[in-house]
């Protein structure tokens, strides 16, 4: 991949990293904010459900931060834009849609077809 494209994706990933990192902090703060004046059991239950949802959203955002970190690492290593499974170039349209993509479309489809399981020899 040419240097201008790599630089474009680096800037885009860094912008997304800032956005997701900020969201993680907000989600975590919302999840631990318990001083809302809830007194009745229904209010307490609702607060617990909202807290659980906030934690799950925070986990999702944290995973996005980790995926972006991995993509930035691949940029530094010079392997960004190459499938980590078959080492073929990942189509730039796929990277536009998902800048953190690790696999080309064919390998991603194969992984999804096996439900994420890797084939292992049997005895």
Could you describe the 3D structure shown?
This protein has a single domain, classed as Four Helix Bundle (Hemerythrin (Met), subunit A) (Up-down Bundle), CATH 1.20.120.910. 67% of the residues lie in helices and 0% in strands. The chain is built from four helices and no strands. The radius of gyration is 20 Å and the shape is elongated. The model has no long low-confidence stretch (mean pLDDT 81).
Could you give a short description of this structure?
With 123 residues, this protein is mainly α. The chain contains four helices and no strands. Helix 1 packs antiparallel against helix 2.
Essential attributes:
mainly alpha; Four Helix Bundle (Hemerythrin (Met), subunit A); 123 residues; single chain; 0% strand
């Amino acid at each position: 991949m040419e240097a201008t494209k790599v630089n474009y994706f680096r800037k885009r990933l860094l912008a997304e990293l800032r956005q997701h990192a900020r969201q993680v902090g907000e989600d975590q703060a919302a999840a631990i904010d318990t001083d809302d004046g809830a007194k009745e059991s229904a209010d307490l239950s609702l607060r617990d459900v909202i807290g659980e949802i906030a934690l799950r959203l925070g986990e999702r955002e944290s995973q996005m931060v980790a995926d972006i970190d991995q993509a930035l690492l691949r940029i530094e290593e010079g392997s960004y834009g190459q499938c980590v499974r078959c080492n073929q170039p990942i189509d730039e349209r796929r990277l536009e849609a998902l800048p953190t993509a690790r696999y080309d479309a064919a390998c991603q489809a194969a992984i999804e077809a096996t439900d994420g399981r890797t084939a292992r020899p049997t005895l």
